[in-house]
Amino acid sequence: MNRVVIIGSGNLAEALARALAAARGLQLVQIHARNEERGREVARIAGCAWSGDPAALAPADLYLIAVSDRAVAEVAERLPIPHGAAVAHTAGSVPMEAIPAKFARRGVFYPMQTFTKGRAVDFRPIPIFLEASTPELLAELEEVAQRLSDRVIPADSERRSKIHLAAVFACNFANHMYTLGEEIARSAGLDFDVLRALVAETAAKACDAASPRDVQTGPAVRGDRTTQERHEALIADSRMKEIYQTISQNIWETSRKI
Amino acid sequence: MNRVVIIGSGNLAEALARALAAARGLQLVQIHARNEERGREVARIAGCAWSGDPAALAPADLYLIAVSDRAVAEVAERLPIPHGAAVAHTAGSVPMEAIPAKFARRGVFYPMQTFTKGRAVDFRPIPIFLEASTPELLAELEEVAQRLSDRVIPADSERRSKIHLAAVFACNFANHMYTLGEEIARSAGLDFDVLRALVAETAAKACDAASPRDVQTGPAVRGDRTTQERHEALIADSRMKEIYQTISQNIWETSRKI
Predict the structure, then answer these.
(1) Is residue B258 pLDDT above 60, yes or no?
(2) Closest-CA residue in chain A for B180?
(3) B185, B94: one domain
(4) Residue B178 clears pLDDT 60, i.e. is over it
(5) What is the ipTM metric for this complex?
């Protein structure tokens, strides 16, 4: 299994295209995407062909569907993908069954990372979670995934849903904490720049620790109510206050569980 | 003002000691700390003397009180610091007035970073927030701070409280999001290791952006209720569910404000 077509032209499609183009033993034969501008752009980055015409869908061993969660089923249904080919989607929280059963060789190929347009990331440390309709296909997908990453992990749809939820906390919600920090800094006449060194060190420290729980700091883990009350008095927005209180309470209680 | 005594032996005292020892034009003359083992350790790291005996407090131009928030006033009261010396505490959320008024030259010297025992950090990008009882002392503290950092910012107690609150979100709460991510990963039989690449990239991406708001991703910012409902069904703990819902709602609403 070495000829691969990527369907889609979003951030994940671009990141996969970069990684596949650079991988040995794999041939990225086409970016298939309706959005011509982005499709051509991703194809240019990866040095392969683009097509938006279903009739021109290239023959391949593996079709990776990297479109929005909701479009997976429709895209798999609509495009003339040969029924004997392997078809995998790349969405963390979408069941494998979103791919129609007419594809006997269906699966999931989920690289867990936050991908950004125009931003190259090192794929090797990114975990890729795999699911497949047959043990043979799982082995084949493993072979492909190992050409991109050092961390290839089998995960059925339930396990993958949990992993995706974990990623929402560790990535999306952590980023929102940065955003709230920025909002408060702005209320003091400062911008996000004053928080950059702190954000970078917080992540570096957690990554170097056995567990982020071991490096938790701040008034909540110390049970410092005086500081917490001073903080609460500073927060005008009621939902932000609720977030402050709920997270503080959770930090305090989970730290005591140890 | 170049002879400095650090009072305290915690993480911040250690980080300050490292930075002061390496700075040109400043002389770290003593670590004064009751905890002999840690005091000696910090003094060894910084290559200066230690004492735990109040009678042996070294003469200096500036006394930096880097003890726990609650102990600032008591320590400043108890130690025989010459009344003419400059005395500054290093706590983000403690008013300058915690230092007794008998010190005409009192101030605050707050480096905003998360410090860890035994972990050296580059001090130059760390913002140092300064407050002083007189304009002359502010200028003197600025001179000291500029020898350690490129970002020296005056901030009265109210402004500093806000900055400290911003740091709680961007650091302490972001770290707790990692911890919750780890907890969920464990429920899927995986450990924090699978989240490391994601945590590192999330912070790097936010730091490279003009604002973390610009790089927010995930089901909440997309308004993807299907995925959110799937996630909520996976969360058994009621407070974790509340955190999930409140943050998701806030991401959705703040993204729409733009």
Answers:
(1) no
(2) A169
(3) no
(4) yes
(5) 0.94
Q: Residue A106's domain is classified under what CATH number?
A: 3.40.50.720
Radius of gyration of chain B (CA): 22
pLDDT number for residue A257 = 59
Tell me the per-residue pLDDT of A94-123, one tens digit each, with 9 for 90 and over.
Answer: 999 999 999 999 999 999 999 988 888 899
Task: Please indicate if any CB of chain A lies within 8 Å of the CB of B27.
Answer: no
| Interchain pair A195, B167: CB under 8 A | yes
pLDDT of residue B257: 59
Cα separation, B127 vs B123, in Å, equals 8
Higher confidence at residue A17 or residue A116? A17
Tell me what percent of the residues of chain B surpass a pLDDT of 90: 94
| Cα A9 to Cα A41: distance, rounded to the nearest angstrom | 8
- Please report the pLDDT score of residue B120 as a whole number: 86
Tell which of A125, A155, A185 closes a domain: A155
Q: How many helices (H) and strands (E) does chain A have?
A: 10, 8
Please check whether residues B55 and B180 belong to one and the same domain: no
Residue type, B232: E
For A199, the 3-state DSSP assignment is: helix
Cβ <8 Å between A211 and B167 = no
Nearest residue of chain A to residue B150 (CA atoms): A194
- Say whether A112 and B163 touch across the interface (CB within 8 A): no
CB atoms A127 and B213 under 8 Å: no
**For residues A110 and A90, is the Cβ–Cβ distance under 8 A?**
yes
Do B212 and A203 lie within an 8 Å CB cutoff? no
Q: Are residues A229 and A111 in the same domain?
A: no
Optimal mutation site among B67, B164, B173, B217, interface A, most CBs of chain A within 10 A: B173
Amino acid at A9: S
Domain boundaries, position A184: 161-256
Which of B95, B127, B155 lies at the terminal end of a domain, its last residue?
B155
A60 to chain B nearest CA, in Å? 30
Residue B116 banded pLDDT, cuts 50, 70, 90: confident
